[in-house]
């Protein structure tokens, strides 16, 4: 009897030990070194192996890349995973400098079809884009070759990007597509003002995206909205250098989805080519409306075109202005916007003659150009003026 009891206890203890080890492994941290990733080396395979194990974990998992310098080729990781995953990066990861070494990848780091993903840490993702920018001929070639972006976040739900830095991407720094409830908080984008086509964060066909407490300096739009963007918040963001915070460009293609619900608040733009802007193409097939756009409490420091609706957007003369834009813009407010303009007209509202803008409000606009009040120029729109706002000249 005693022997039976002892055997039973032994089996029980072994089972508990096994379960404890199993649970520990499932909830443990997957350090990149465990999979052969070392500083000053290539961690492509190590990262893919760590993701595979983390994605299979039935409880929350963390992949860690500690301080140090690493290289990594293009990676494409997918869910669905069984539990939340955090990727904590505290080192500097470098992409191949030669665009050909990206092997045709559209994004260097692509994460898709997953839930509850956190990308965090003090790390830097260095796209080493300087060589690629020299190859960008989009100013003269409408069919120019698309270069690789730093990040593709596709079809993610309930996820967050926190504190990391995207540096010198070859193309857009971040593409957000098909996501729901994705937040950027303390995110940084670092690239020179002459880095072509390097939008900071480009959003398309996504809902409830928040960009908070973020600093973006780049060579194109700091934030840009593509079609199908809904309920987007940009708050406490510093933008510059760059081309400003933009809705669009839109209307160039058929079957674009409406854009609605854009809230930009407490932002500072410095030395940018534009401020807050809505842009649509003329003589183009797109008809999906843009509505419920609100820009409030914005500081402009030497910003050209601080407040800008441009429904004759035609970069590099790649289109005709023979026919007006078919996109209706409505329910737009610009309030409490102050600072210095780099152009005499601080407000330019160039709306479509085919479908004039409706429900546009200008409130408490206090912009100066060379010490004098900046002026406003408007066409195909009759904005409501509240507080101190410049009257429109046609």
Automatic annotation (TrEMBL):
Primary location group: secreted
Domain of life: Eukaryota
Annotated active site: 243
Pfam family, one: Glyco_hydro_28
PROSITE patterns: POLYGALACTURONASE (PS00502)
Signal peptide feature range: 1-25
Family matches, as InterPro entries: Glyco_hydro_28 (IPR000743), PbH1 (IPR006626), Pectin_lyas_fold (IPR012334), Pectin_lyase_fold/virulence (IPR011050)
Classification via SMART domains: PbH1
Keywords, ordered alphabetically: Cell wall, Cell wall biogenesis/degradation, Glycosidase, Hydrolase, Secreted, Signal
Subcellular location: Secreted, Cell wall
Family to which this protein belongs: Belongs to the glycosyl hydrolase 28 family.
Name by which UniProt lists this protein: Polygalacturonase
């Amino acid at each position: 009897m005693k022997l039976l009891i002892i055997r039973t206890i032994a089996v029980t203890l072994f089972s508990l030990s096994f379960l404890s080890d199993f649970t520990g492994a499932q909830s443990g941290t997957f350090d990149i070194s465990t999979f052969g990733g070392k500083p000053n080396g290539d961690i492509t395979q190590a990262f893919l192996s760590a993701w595979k194990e983390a994605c299979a974990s039935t409880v929350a998992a963390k992949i860690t890349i500690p301080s140090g310098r690493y290289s990594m080729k293009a990676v494409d990781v997918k869910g669905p995973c069984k539990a939340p995953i955090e990727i904590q990066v505290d080192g500097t990861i470098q992409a191949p400098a030669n665009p050909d070494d990206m092997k045709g990848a559209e994004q260097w780091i692509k994460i898709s079809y997953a839930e509850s993903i956190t990308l965090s840490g003090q790390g830097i993702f260095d796209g080493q884009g300087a060589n690629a920018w020299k190859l960008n001929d989009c100013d003269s070639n409408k069919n120019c070759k698309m270069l690789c972006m730093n990040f593709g976040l596709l079809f993610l739900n309930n996820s967050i990007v926190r504190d990391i830095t995207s540096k010198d991407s070859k193309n857009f720094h971040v593409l957000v597509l098909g996501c729901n409830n994705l937040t950027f908080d303390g995110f940084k984008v670092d690239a020179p003002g002459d880095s072509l086509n390097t939008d900071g964060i480009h959003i398309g066909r996504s809902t409830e995206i928040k960009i908070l407490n973020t600093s973006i300096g780049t060579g194109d739009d700091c934030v840009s909205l593509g079609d199908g963007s809904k309920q987007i918040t940009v708050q406490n963001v510093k933008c510059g250098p760059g081309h400003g915070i933009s809705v669009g460009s839109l209307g160039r293609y058929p079957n674009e989805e409406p854009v609605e619900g854009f809230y930009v608040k407490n932002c500072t733009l410095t030395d940018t080519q534009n401020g807050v802007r809505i842009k649509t193409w003329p003589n183009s097939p797109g008809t999906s409306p843009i509505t419920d756009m609100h820009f409030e409490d914005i500081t402009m420091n030497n910003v050209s075109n601080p407040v800008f609706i441009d429904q004759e957007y035609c970069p590099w003369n790649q289109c005709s202005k023979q026919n007006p834009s078919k996109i209706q813009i409505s329910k737009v407010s610009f309030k409490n916007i102050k600072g210095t303009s780099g152009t005499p007209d601080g407000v330019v509202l160039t709306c479509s003659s085919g479908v004039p803008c409706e429900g546009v409000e200008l409130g408490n606009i206090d912009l100066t150009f060379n010490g004098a009040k900046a002026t406003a120029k408007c066409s195909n729109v009759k904005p409501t003026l509240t507080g101190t706002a410049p009257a429109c000249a046609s």
